[in-house]
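Exercise (ungraded).
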Amino acid sequence: MSTVERAALDAPESGKGEPPLPPTDSSGRPRSAARAWIWWILRRLGLAIVTLWAISVIVFLSTTALGDPVRAILGKDYEVSPDRVAAITQELNLDKNPVERYFLWLGDLLTGNLGDSVVNNLPVAELIGERLANSIALVLIVTIIMVPVALLIALVSARFRGRAADQTIQVVNLALAGIPEFVTGILLVALLSTTVLHLFPAVTVLPPGEMVWQRPSSLVLPVLTLVISIVPYLARILRANLIEAMDADYTELARLKGVPERSVLLKHALPNTLVPTVQVTALQLAWLLGGVVLIEYLFNFPGIGALLVDSVRNADFPVVQALAMIIAAAYILVNLIADALSILLTPRARTGMVA
Amino acid sequence: MTGSDGQSPPGFSRRGFLRLGALGAVLGATGTLAGCAADATGATTSRLVHGATGGGLKDTLDAHFPVTVPDISRVRNLYETLLRYNPAYEIEAGLAESWEHNPAGDQWTFKLRKDVTFHDGRPMTAEDVATSVKRFADPKEPSAYALTLSKIVDFQSSRALDEHTYQMVLTQPYSVLDQIMANYTLGIVPADYDPANPIGTGPYKYESFVPGQRSQFTAYADHWEHPPTYEELVILDFFDDAAKVNALLAGQVQSVDNLPRYLADVMEPQGANTLVAESGGWTPFTMRVDQEPFSDNRVRQALRLVVNRQEMIDQAFNGYGRLANDLYSPYDPAYIGDQLPQREQDIDQAKSLLKQAGYENLQVELTTSSGIGAGAVEAANLFAQHARQAGVDVRVNKVDSSIFYGDQYLSWPFAQDFWETRMYLPQAEAAALSDGPYNETHFNHPVFEQLIRDAQQEMDEAKRTTLLQDAQQVEHEEGGLIIWGFKSHVDAYSQFVTGFEPVTEMPMSGFRFNLATPVEEGSS
């Protein structure tokens, strides 16, 4: 979870220590603003493509170094199934040299052909599709709940800084942050599903073809577990940001001008914490999407994390490669969106775009 | 061979231990009846949901090549074999109502039942048997239990004699063909079988299948023997022991196989039943008899004497197992492991043997992996502790499953392996003959080889028993295996289901879900 702290440090210039300006009126020169944005997006997309290409090389190199895939796939049967050894070798192009294999793979990837799993011959796209959608659904629901809850806790904490309410929140936050998410999950299951109350299903059981959001009751416990695991971190970072903003000169000036503390917090300090909120949330989002394997295991949640672990264990190249590329692309996309939002939320950066 | 190639329950890591520890604490600390939680999913009594351990993308519906535990449970419900093992691991009639062989033992004739139909309604005939044998005994890709068979079947001469009689002709006599044919991977499928449309004769028909997640089946009402009570069967894959147990306690599944053994005692107060079945499954230490220091039989005997077998069973199997005497196949009629004096820990004797052999400060490396199966790594660590008492320094080298079963598999000097219940002769062919595909110990003993080869062709049961017992005597005295215990299957099922019984061959009542029935209202 140290990514969160890092994210806070790495967050771009958030305009702290600067009074929030009224929204810049860019209607005077809309065309150049639009052009500036297009230019920015193109540049970032270009960078994203270069990054993805570099990642594809790394993914390819690291997957070809996983050991002899044929042995890993067949296990004990390797010795007695020469036909299957030959078939898998051919399917994976293992008889060709690595450079040739890389370009064959890259070509397929670019044309959207993810290939077939080598352990069960099903198309990779089919294997990944529903699980990816389930993982995205989980991430979005967790995010939608987590951000307002964390902001609210941080606001209460910052407003009553040093008082009983704040101290209680801090203690609870620290305690929750110290509990690993699988322990939280097990306790929640015992509390709400198996031992004390019997309100929600303990694991996700989906009829064929159904997606997780069609069974909202089975989403409750995984979502709750993740929210409880992440909110303490987020709330602590946001509280620190809020408090910093409330100690700044401009908030002091606002107070001197007679602005009530409540308004100081909501109108002056809060807007300046939005950028770190966006940045930290973005990293959490990508981390969640990459797979919360323990949570998927505990709730038998059909997401991509367990699939990735399974594929690595089976040395199922095509699935590992496809998932690695998807997760990398998600990281890049989410960060791109976060940066765009950060610019929009930061007056100085926003005006800088068109200046 | 039986789903043990690294697909066993996910590894027992430190983190996993913490996680399970938390689960155990929660379950242990609370004694609430969870019975009222049943049907939290709105399941009707006509649906049985089973939580199977492991599984993943490797899952398959193929009758002859099951890989994972969920696969085995599916195979048992979709397909049936000519002969089969009963719960006590004795051979009984399956789809064949009787079988006989000629005096030489190279022609075996199976009389088929006439009332058996495939799931699409067609009757099962001897032609279907002929094509099934060609498929599972294909020398290029034999099924796990058909390795020997694939080398000796004469496909030219084996044929259907009439609609309900199949004759298998062998290129050489084979005395225990019945022991082979009773194995669950040798199911009878229609002549036009396609695993994508998995048709068999079993009590449940295929409905749907998602590898690594779930499979669904409907009752085959025309089953010849025992049509299921539950109209639907769902088998769910579980990667996580905690999830599996929680699903049972929440009433989302009615049965789970391979319960973590330490939870066996806390299931009853939680409103579930534990099912314990003794089996012939074993997790031996394998010493290569062709490499120093194990090439000296005194070293092998010394290492067999350092093991505190009961402690290993208590700790690695959580007490759910029983003593073994360095011999396998306890269910074989010729088994003598319980007649020979039980080998026990004898540190003085071990030290003296090592001294005689000139290995007083012996150092060895023991290769283990969580992929071998539950309890393997624990047993390896215990072995190191026991050996230290005799002055032997054992370095435990824990490797990943893909490395253990990688290039060096079958050539580790000192390692472990895992086998399910088998009869003696088929097991010896697989793992003790010099040309056996899984001869981990590189055992190559001329007297032993001759005894086994004679037994393969000896049709007289009394004489064969003598041969097999002599062979066991050789392995007991000079073999490279340390066999310290036979594990028990530990499973659990809901108090709303009945009809499960202990089965030696495999967990969860042998996955015979057609015998399960709901508990009547008010009777519990």
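Further reading is listed at the end of the chapter. For now, observe: Chain B has 15 helices and 21 strands. Chain B touches chain A through 61 residues (CB under 8 Å).
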